[in-house]
Amino acid sequence: MSDYQQQQEEEATDSNIINVFWDKGMLDHDMGTGVFDSGIDPGFLDILEKHPENPDRIINIVSILKRGPISPFISWHSSSKPAHVSQLLSFHTQEYIDSLLEADKNGGKTICSGTFLNIGSWNSALLAAGTTLSAIKYILDGHGKLCYALVRPPGHHAQPTRADGYCFLNNAGLAVQYALDSGCKRVTVIDIDVHYGNGTAEGFYHSDKVLTISLHMNHGSWGTSHPQSGDINELGEGTGYGYNLNVPLPNGTGDKGYKYAMVELVSPAVRKFRPDMMVFVVGQDSSAFDPNGRQCLSMEGYRDIGQIIRRLADDHCNGRILIVQEGGYHVTYSAYCLHATLEGVLNLPAPLLSDPIAYYPEDDASAIKAIESIKHHQATVVPFLRDATH
Fold first, then answer.
1. 70, 116, 162, 340: which could form a disulfide with 31 (CB 3.0–4.6 Å)?
2. What is the pLDDT of residue 358?
3. Contact (CB, 8 A) for 299 and 342
4. What is the mean pLDDT of the chain?
5. Cα angle: 252, vertex 255, 261; to 5 degrees
6. From the candidates 156, 157, 330, 339, which is the catalytic residue?
7. Could you tell me which of 254, 283, 286 has the C-alpha nearest to residue 166?
8. Does 79 score more than 90 pLDDT?
9. Is 157 considered catalytic here?
10. Contact 71, 346 (CB under 8 A)
């Protein structure tokens, strides 16, 4: 061990250790090959690519956390169990779960566009849900403040009644409901995956106990599995009106634009809401090099976001953060960006890992203009942001 690594280990205390919940059984989920995520072999291509949501992306995240410079700050937990069907019903309907059970029993099926439940997929999905529930329980039982559910298949597009966008079970949504059922009064979900966290939003769309904030590229609806648009007018309904805040960012938004959104939109909303639990939903598909997104975050931007999340949690949630893995499909750069995000959450004084490929210049004018427009809209129509006594 080098002197530098030894010094890092000595500096790592219980308050800045990230507890990583992981089980290799989640690698059994395999959606095959084809033209990107279509599963189609057109017959005239010699090389078909793996489905973007494949095990390699997660294997690299595991390896960078085990052997990268952040490793002294990581504590591994691998004793999670698959979620029971009864636990899934806290977020999903019985009818929907029964349809997945039937698909698994019959050897799998295409659930929706780009989303294939194959042999091994259902067990992986149950492990992902169970692993995330183990992580939130660890926090709520007082064993640690920072937990990372390193899970796949992802979950934030899965709605109570349907699968969507590579997602079968909403891991973050299950954790949020568990937190509420365990006595948390208010939970904030901040989702930085490049796509709208529509499933989580849908699950709490009528609740004023959960503030869902999603920063995503402005992609709109993509069909019957994803009817939500992610625009600024999807604010929640009934008692939940105003507690779903969408931040659709222009394509090409990078580090400065995302940081501006976090400072001008996310932080004030969290301060007003005063949550006692933070769920940080991370996807590295908002990076500049991801094949499934059109944003331009680099490691520096992810590190800044992680630091802001940490400050908000320290101020309002006694430092408690559950991090839940979602997308991120560049097999190498996603691991680097996750490393940078966790450096930010740890609030380390200096970067541990340099960026090997970031070089895009950023024109943040369009992003700032869009964010100012969203800020004005929210200040006008969101009741709790206007209420001085909230």
1. 116
2. 86
3. no
4. 95
5. 90
6. 157
7. 283
8. no
9. yes
10. no
